[in-house]
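Notebook entry, cofactor series.
This is the third protein in the set we're modelling with a bound small molecule. For this one the ligand is zinc ion. I'm keeping the input format identical across the series so the outputs can be compared line by line later. Sequence and SMILES below, as received.
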Amino acid sequence: MTYREKTMPGPTILIDDAFEVELMRTMFSSTSYYDSQHYGHDDVRVALDKIYHGKCAYCETRIEPVATPQVDHYRPVNTYTGEYPPGQRQNHRGYYWLGYEWTNLVLSCPACNGTKSSKFHLSNPANRVTEAPALVAYLPNYPEHLASSASFSVEDPLLINPERKNPDIHLAVNYYGLLEPINDSPYGQATIDICDLNWDKLYENRLAVMSKIIDEINTQLYKRYRRDGLALTEGQFKESLFTIFKKILERTTVTKQYNMVGRCMIAKFEDLILPDIEDLYQRKVMKYFIEFLQTR
Ligand SMILES: [Zn+2]
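Returned structure with ligand:
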């Protein structure tokens, strides 16, 4: 998960005459009557695609071409049910006034969207906003509907909204490729649980990113210390390590899949990469890594 700024205005398709009728129908029902042709219109998907670089806002998997990107309502619009943490079960008709609200829409892969479903937990459920702001109840895209509006300031959602909260403060990748909460962050833990961000394929994919780097470092170590007279000089070895470290850096760019892994490889190099380097050479690799960071 990576912090994203949504500075561009929402596509005009989101301002629609049908909104009022759909809102009224959704309000008195447990079903959403919002037209997915509007909030999930190509214009909306293209705009979100630019913000999220074609990656799922939650798991950071590149969605196309293996699946079709979906437009997820961060605050669920039709109904709210959930059992997280255990015992906090409640029924709620959802944030029915946010069907076409641009700041409530994120790009999601089908897996995360389906797993998240209508789960939306707060640190204190008593603070839940259950009604549309009074003055603007039936108008779309009103300032009081914005995710940043005063109307929502009382809520403290546990699911990290990558447009509102920096995930790097709450989530990190560990040695096994699993996401874990930083300092027991309840936001980090809830986000992992709600979107199931540690299911097999996801942690394996994150692990593969790290394994590739580790393999490349070990290959260069082999080349440096081979005994057939063809060993790399120390200078050549350092140069090839720097080339690998550059790849770690490139991994942090926002267009890359799982770029949180890149950020964590930099921040937690000792924990994620070094343990798989032979003991004898760990200090040397670490020394060059620090030198690389200082000279970049
Ligand atoms: Zn996803």
